[in-house]
Here is the input.
Amino acid sequence: MINSISCLNRVDNNVENNKEVYHISTKLLIKILNLNRENKGLGKLEDALIARKLGILYTFKTNIYLNFKNDYVNLMLDELIILEEIIDYYFNVEMKAATMKCFTIKLEKQENTLVKIEQGELISLEEILKFYTNIELNAKDEPENKQTISDQKIKVPSSNSNFFKKLIKLFR
Amino acid sequence: MSTSEESGYSPQIMTAGGQTIIGGLSRVFHCNFYNSYLQMAVLLTQASGDHNPKQLLTNSVTPLVNNLINCGYTEQDLLEEFAFCGFGYLEQRDEKTWETPISHYGQRLCLHGRPQKSCYFTSGYLQGMLNKVVTETACQIETKEHDEFSVSDKTLQIKNYLCNEFQLTSNIPERFDFDTRVDEDVITATVATLPLKGHYVANETALISAFGVVLTNHFADYYNKISYETYFALMDAGIPKEDAEEIFTQAGHICAFNTFGGIMKSPEWYGLVAPQCDSKEDWFHGMIAVVNALGWGVYRVEKIDPKGETIVRVYNSYEGVGYRRMYSQTDEKNMSFLVMGGMLGLVHLLWKVDIREKPELTEDFYVNQFNNIANSYQVKQTHAIAAGDEYDRVVVFK
Here is the structure.
């Protein structure tokens, strides 16, 4: 459930040699890529075409085939930077690796039904909601109150999972 | 024989087995969308060892121009034919510099990535004409006024890649029997008389604008060379076959969507074809008749069943024939990417979109339609000239 809304998801059990692995929802990645194109006045592209191109381009850059038609891909930070370069050059939009990291939603170890929201995650929600609802959030201003959205337009319900369910609906 | 009266240029045009031959080389009509998507597909393979897609896009036309010179073409013939085929207007600025103020590749290509120099074809054409290495130094895609090409002192010799003899088949059967009023022969013959040619003058008429797209009467072997070399590079890199095929069939699909779609909305269509049509199936037959005037081979409709399978055979398909002229026979059947993408696109235009309602064929419309998998079809190739079969045969199914 959570996975369907997370663009980048740190998966603790995949940590190797202190390198963080980001679990990327390709669906969200492609949606945001297209939104960026539209914001820049460029044409929207077919999802399957973007996925296919990303797979080919990533393979030629790294010699590792990655299937962006799958629901998720796992990338480390340096690979994320390669993805950033690919998106910039071949899709003409800037999606910084650092920005994409803000979409990270940390999971409790192996438990993906509950979400522990921290500042980074709120930035994630901020970005996500901005894209899909035009609702402005400001997570940075209130890092202490981790479940409250600063502009008071929305309050995250006490049950995080319900909130995420609502978000999931937005993506569908 | 066809004559470009305005410029006096008159290349000898022969038709044989559904192919159009100018200067001994097969020519096929394709639109700016196909040219864009195909070029973008080739450029995906950048940074791959010895494989150099920019050189591939440039050097693949050079030996073809050499072949024309060997057939007796003069430099003036080549310049006029460049315009006649819709590539634009080429002119020399000084000893080391050429430019195209009007150009298909510089002005009419769409790019998904950052704007970058895109006239590889023109560079390669000049290379063949001048027998020197030519590099593009400015491009209209990068908002420059002209595409500009620098001629180096280095001579170059690029080997002719059409190394195998392969004869076109003359054993082309009659059409399959269908209950339709559509007279394919009349349609094909009439479309062949349309003035789809550019003129050797420094204005927009050096391009071929028709049916809402911009056409080129391109070298079939150029398409084949850049497609198959890229396909092999994709396979070598470990890209799954399905992805490698899709990236090329997509070019055919987008071509069908825009060009076939544009044709089926045009006044010419409504004047000539639509009056013969009672059903979507008739529209399908009508469009196949038009395709048979494009130099792509001889298309024969075997079956139309939008709920089951729609099957088309292609005799002398330019992809199959071109493959055999460049490479040994393969075991692989799914090799005629344009046929697959084109026929899939045609089925989609009729049974997913319904082109008869004249929708605006915009990028957004395309994306919205094909991001929605409902009522989408798939395609596979069961027979391939590349694999030794007598014809290409594609099946479009749900």
